[in-house]
Structures are given as structure tokens and as C-alpha cells.
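Sample intake sheet
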Amino acid sequence: MTMSRTTKSGIDPELIRELANLLTETDLSEIEVQQADLRIRVARQFAVTATVPVAAPAAVPVVAAVPAPAAAPAELDPANHPGVLKSPMVGTAYRGAAPGAKPFVEVGSKVSQGDRVLIVEAMKTFNDIVATRSGTVTALLIEDKQPVEYGQPLMIVE
């Protein structure tokens, strides 16, 4: 990759395309390059499909304005549910304390506000994710060891 052909803004569109393709090929969530005063960061977002209680993210390269997927009715969108627990950071979500360990919670588990329900690893640091309200876990929206984005719905507690 070279930063040679640039537009008036100083950005090489071919470089951006190459970086976006590299993200897809390597399954990275973001990449950043810098040369002199020019710094380019390309990142992907993961969209959750709300057709089943446990949905895998669909990777979408973000290079320019990407139209949002067709909105599901509000009652089916877990992000709008009053009991949704969202990821406070980008990282990898783990349902248990160690590989093969019993998950912290399952659908039907009773939780109290402040109970550890997941762990999100970010930059080699394991962060406890705690219940923001007391109730019963009615839906788990992620799989164990799944990459998560900031604000992504993780589970619903009613």
C-alpha cells in the first residue's frame, strides 16, 4: 500500500478501498495508517439481526456513509427494550469466568442489580459487566467469545 494518488483533500481513495478490503479479509474491526501529517482510520461496525433471540453480528465495512438496515418494529428491536443491557465498550464478550466454565447467567436466571453477568475483554483487560437492574434474564443476545461493539445489546433483564 502506498499513499501516492491523492485528491484535493489529500486522501487517496484507492488506499481507503485497500484498507477496507484488508479489514474484511483479516476479520479485523479497525485499522489505522499514518504517514507524515496524513492519518487514515477505517473501522467496521457490527449490526445485530433481531430475528432470533441469539443473533450473530453481520460485519459491515465503514468507509463512507453506510445506510442503516431497514428498521425492525420497536417491540422486536432489543436496543429499544427497557431492560436491555448494552456493552459499555468494544471487546470480546465471555459468558463465563474461564473457557469451559459455567456461564454467569442463562435465560431464566434471576439477577440482582450489580451482579456480574458477563465479562468483556478489551486490550487484554477483563472487565466485569454487571446487571443494571434486578429481574430475570429473558434473552441472551450474544454468544460466548463473540466480538461486541460499544452500545451493542448483550441481554435483556425483565
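Comment: Residues 48-52, 64-68 have pLDDT under 50 and may be disordered. DSSP finds one helix and eleven strands in the chain.
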